[in-house]
Amino acid sequence: MRVLFVSTNRELLPSPVAPLGMLAVAAATRAQHEVTVEDLCFTRDVPHALDTLRAAIARARPDVVALGVRNLRDNAYRDGGALAEYHAALGGCAREALETLETTKGTGARLVLGGAAVTLQPAAMLARTGASHAVVGEGERAFPALLDALARGERPDTLIRATPAPLDELPRAAWDLVDRRYFEREGTATVQTKRGCAFSCTYCDYPDLEGRTVRVRAPALVADEVAALARTAGVSHLFFVDSVFNAPRTHARAVCEALIACGAPLPWVCYASPAGLDDELVAQMARAGCVGAEIGTDAGTDAGLRRLRKPFDLAQVRRVRASFRAHGLLDCHSFVLGAEGETADEAAATLSFVESLDPDLAVFLIFAEDREALVAARDVEHRAALRALLAREAPRHPGWIVPELGVRFGPKVTRLVLRRALRGPSWLHLARARRAERG
Ligand code: B12
Ligand code: SF4
């Protein structure tokens, strides 16, 4: 079959992120089917995105249009009203354009959705776009299987729940099909060393996306992929997009060893949990090319950590901070306010803890549920109080970032990064500036 993959994400903040997941599905699909890719990320506005989609369908004359949908929220974590309208318009536009093609006229079964937004809210995304099918979870096996079923003239279910696959059996993402502007702009490529998270932090939907059982990739294959990306024009940095890079610890260590063995070819960042992140591992990460990590600390009281079921305490967070400083790694600790019945006093205590921890950067998010089955009326008053607290406190603390309020986050920061032609994830630049200020 002829398949047109379309990456629909147009979010440019904190930086444009290449559609790794969609490129992975494209790689798995092209063994059997004819694949083309269109990326709407750099389109000027929504009408331009719709025109681009229409033109791509007319050009590719696909049997199936596969829309990759990543975000339900924009960088400011707004409720997604505008995004929902955008997704609905894309669905309408794709269906209309497919109807004009002889090959798909009247089949009504040719618009397929996939991606994190679809896994979190499949029913809403199907209703919004009018798509015929939605793949929930990873697409490398489920999507080609769907195409095969369609090619045989079968009528597969609307919702396709993917079964997790052993990662070493999957092909590498089709980086040859990526829009080069991602690399020209800031040079960050992305790699996964594993899928899944075995922790059970109460509010977190990452295990819903990738599973609770961790599946790891062979460290040698990870290192090969990193080395290949390092040879790719424009690639200067790497982001390990695992939910948590450092767990399981043994695997993180093995990946670091494999990277060291191939000369630590790229500076990289990752998401890390304070759990098990000891000095030995931090030192090894530094030798393997790590320049910084976004650390999911999440609460600044031990009671809060216990309630969120975080598997560490504040003393451990302080040890991690010290290790990062000792080994010259930049740190950005994230904090989630407003989850699990947190009181106003506890939110204030978290801010005091951050003040005393004094990381290079701290990013504050106000909790918002995205899992379809759990989306409930939010505590509007508590959210408003947290916004007021952060609006008062964050601007006067150097290094505190609040995406929702645009504090040290937003187009101004991005323009600065672009003007200075700085490479790599933008938070690193803020963190470096902060270290330089401190001397
Ligand atoms: C790493 C990451 C980041 C990094 C990205 C670094 C980079 N250069 O790529 C950073 C920190 C920059 C980031 C930023 C943001 N992120 Co983020 N991020 C992630 C994370 C942890 C992994 C994404 C990833 O690459 N996964 C690896 C790939 C292989 O998986 P995948 O994309 O899901 O693809 C698989 C399936 O979804 C499916 N699939 C994907 N596409 C398609 C297409 C088709 C047709 C099919 C059939 C299947 C399919 O198959 C793929 C392979 O198995 C996810 C959470 C998670 N664990 O998934 C959040 C997540 C994607 N991010 C999210 C958000 C909100 C954001 C921000 C808006 C936050 C902010 N305020 O800044 C920004 C937006 C950035 C942007 N420009 O879009 C949300 C999106 C959903 C939502 N709630 O809106 C997630 C799910 C986290 C969450 N629960 O809130 N993010
Ligand atoms: S460790 Fe991180 S990814 Fe895993 S459940 Fe907790 S918050 Fe989510």
Terminus-to-terminus distance: 59 Å
**Could you give me the name of the CATH homologous superfamily of the largest domain?**
tm_1862 like domain
- Can you tell me the CATH architecture of the largest domain? Alpha-Beta Horseshoe
The average pLDDT is 94
Structure notes:
The protein is α/β, with parallel strands linked by helices. The chain folds into two domains: 165 residues, Rossmann fold, CATH 3.40.50; 259 residues, pyruvate-formate lyase- activating enzyme (Alpha-Beta Horseshoe), CATH 3.80.30.20. 42% of the residues lie in helices and 16% in strands. It is built from 17 helices and 15 strands. A seven-stranded parallel β-sheet has the order 7-10-11-12-13-14-15, with helices on both faces. The chain has a six-stranded parallel β-sheet with strand order 2-1-3-4-5-6, sandwiched between helices. Strands 8-9 form a two-stranded antiparallel ribbon. Helix 6 links the parallel strand 5 and strand 6. Helix 1 crosses helix 6 and helix 2 packs parallel to helix 3. The longest helix is centred in the first third of the chain and has 19 residues. The radius of gyration is 22 Å and the shape is globular. The chain starts with a strand and ends with a helix. The structure holds cobalamin and iron/sulfur cluster (SF4). Cobalamin binds next to helix 1, strand 3, strand 4, helix 4 and helix 6.
What layout of secondary structure does this protein have?
Layout: E1 2-7, H1 20-29, E2 34-39, H2 46-60, E3 64-68, H3 81-99, E4 111-114, H4 116-120, H5 122-129, E5 133-136, H6 139-151, E6 159-161, H7 181-185, E7 188-191, E8 194-195, H8 206-210, E9 215-216, H9 219-230, E10 237-240, H10 249-261, E11 268-272, H11 279-287, E12 290-298, H12 302-307, H13 314-326, E13 330-337, H14 344-357, E14 361-366, H15 380-393, E15 400-401, H16 411-419, H17 426-438
Helix pairs in contact: 1-6, 2-3, 9-10, 10-11, 14-15
The structure holds cobalamin and iron/sulfur cluster.
Iron/sulfur cluster binds at residues 197, 199, 201, 204, 206-207, 243-244, 273, 296.
